[in-house]
Structures
1.
Amino acid sequence: MMRVLVTSSRNTFALDIIRKLGSLGHTVVASDTFPGATGSHSKYLAGHAVTASPRYDTDRFIADVNRIVAEYDIDLIIPTFEEVFYLSARVADLPEGVTLFGGSFSTLARLHDKASFQRLVKRAGVPIPETIVATDHDSLVAATEKYPRYFARAAFSRGGVGLLTNTGPLAGKMSVDDCHPTEEQPWLVQPFVDGPMVCTYSTIVDGRVTSHCTYRAPEQWAHSTGITFLAVDSTDTLDYTQRIVDALDTGFTGQLSFDFVDNDGELYSIECNPRPTNGVILLEAEQLEQALTGRNDEAFVVEPGVERQISLAVLADAFAEPLKHLPTSLHDLLHVRDVGSGWHDSFAMMWSPATLVHGAKLSHGQRKELLGALGDDIVWNGEPIAGMSAADAAALEDVHEQRI
């Protein structure tokens, strides 16, 4: 049996991982930077702890993680958000005998930086839209003027937050003057690709995909983060994921999530989140368990048609835009299985408002969307990390030089 620490337990998919591993008899401990994190109150936990912010107090965060590892004799750390960058940059400072399921810092940085990621994907032979990297205001304006319909975002961004476009439901939500690209923090500009977003989640062990899910989000909160998840065919995305992993040439072990746009059956790669996303919710508990260890000879692939929803979010979205979403939301509430169904772990979800309050506190006095604020203390935006090795610092510089 494994003894697992799941970090950033505020995330719905972190709670899902906790439930699945805990229900199979593994010892699971949760941590986050505040005590009200949803996943920290699951009945499937052996314990939970509060850590310092990895972003704002990295040294103390690492010390806190070491304390938890020692107290609970942890042998596997599963990050669920961008704390993975801080843990991987400081992996040499983690206790001997504990495994980080997250990959090397240099590899994660190549995947997370959207500019260097585009170059990697192109080398892997995976379709991508034409891409311009803007490093100042003038080049950003010029790039947006090149395409009649465009889509732009920062090289370090996530969760559908901070998107610049003149097309679709997010058109005009952000202006060019709100964006501030630099050499260190560039923006990517692409022609707007028509079609629905297709997302994936994969576990990889020693360079081999061990589980894979491809899904769409029929219902979204504020046109950004998904609140219902429907598995679709994985034939192309599984092939593309393995190609990208092979192009890394590192024997990667960890979790990867990709976003594609389905343009009349042609999938275009958009970005990578080198961490879990809601796709993990669609895996069965035994599949996730075996995939993390690599014991399965062939990848577990979620069958098309499997569907889950975050019922509370669906209900909230329905009343936020009742004329648009209420009919679909009512159907989903009646017919789609909730992510918490069958777990008999409702006390954990009662703490969901605490997570929103945490995000509101982080955004207090700042012009920041709630979705962005929810992860503000655990994100990584390409800066050097306190205590990182000289080799990783050099690798970060190399990533900047690999931008297209």
2.
Amino acid sequence: MPVLLFLIDTSASMNQRTHLGTTYLDIAKGAVETFMKLRGRDPASRGDRYMLVNFEDVPLGIKAGWKESHATFMTELRNLQATGLTTIGQSLRTAFDLLNLNRLVTGIDNYGQGRNPFFLEPSIIIAITDGNKLTSSSGVQDEQLGKHAVLPFVMAASMLNLQ
């Protein structure tokens, strides 16, 4: 029963149009829908759970959690609009927090006792973005992701038990 978390860029730059006239956000939505159709054909995917997170601030950025139905996920996916800022660091943190909360609720992780090794629930984060510069309300940042990591790796590393 893997958890598939889709992290969709909803920054204003996703309103760019391709040579065919479709926006980048429409392409991202189509990619998620196609993925889910193909995954749904596989009998082994019956227990899959899907989550949808976009680049908005918490709690608005969580569009569909682990308790929502497939219909709710698809409705929220279709209703995504590209109006926000590029905040991939905060969005990844939200994704890791949501997965961590899911593990706490399902009993895979226990507060103060660690992870139960006999429970196995793989989680996959699929991020779809146009890769434009990192922007926030304070402006556009010049550094690239490879040179200066602006992502909250301390929080992510602690959730993955890398420290």
3.
Amino acid sequence: MLNSGRARGGSGEWEQPFWQQRGWILSAGFLGVLVVLAALFAVTGNGAEQSTGASGDPSPAPTSTSDSGSGSGSGDGGSKDRPAGCRTDDSVQAKPTKAPRDFHWKANGTGLVPVSRTAGPLKYDGPVWSCFARTPMGAVMAAHSITDHLSYDGWLEVVDRQVVPGAGRDALIKTRTQSGDKSTTGSPDAGGYTGFTVLTYNRSQATVMVLVSGMGGGGYGSASVTVRWQDGDWKLVPEADGTIYGGVSQVSGTDGFVTWEA
């Protein structure tokens, strides 16, 4: 999980999220980011100023909103095009101004991830949490869940099923293979997840900025994640070099972000 950087359940390097491990950082060439945000983000690569996260995909995102089974303006969730057993209400297409009423934290290893019965995920298959609403809020939930699960054992299944194929996914697999898995022991907490904002959205692709706490001096850090609608669900779109976070920066507060409120 994108968190404050302290290891839980032990002090060993391999118990930390993979983007905080020295092997991951060195292999990805993120030493410049390490100097600034070592305790928070190290998966920024050289694309920190690119928030779209789509350069690693073999083809551009479709822009049409008239694809079959879209469910726009209805509650059918595009069930004809969705995986078996997945049905969501996709009628709310406005960018969220507050967290869902039914949002709660769900344990994933030693961290907690925001989930919602209305926005998703609605299906839990081991490390793969899927079936997100085709809405801005569904994209937010997917951005949190998919990236968080890349820290733990089972990450390869997550990559296979929830990352858009292409050069970016290949690079992510190559770099992630060199790192250990985060420990699943210890008491879960909400880590650093503090808030979010939807930077861009259409029914085919969205870029979400995640806000986390735990920076030195009580500050905050933010980073963007891009997801694309493919095969009936949101999937992560890494950069060509395997980077999953872009636009990494320190921020002074929560202004401009929707905050998670338990």
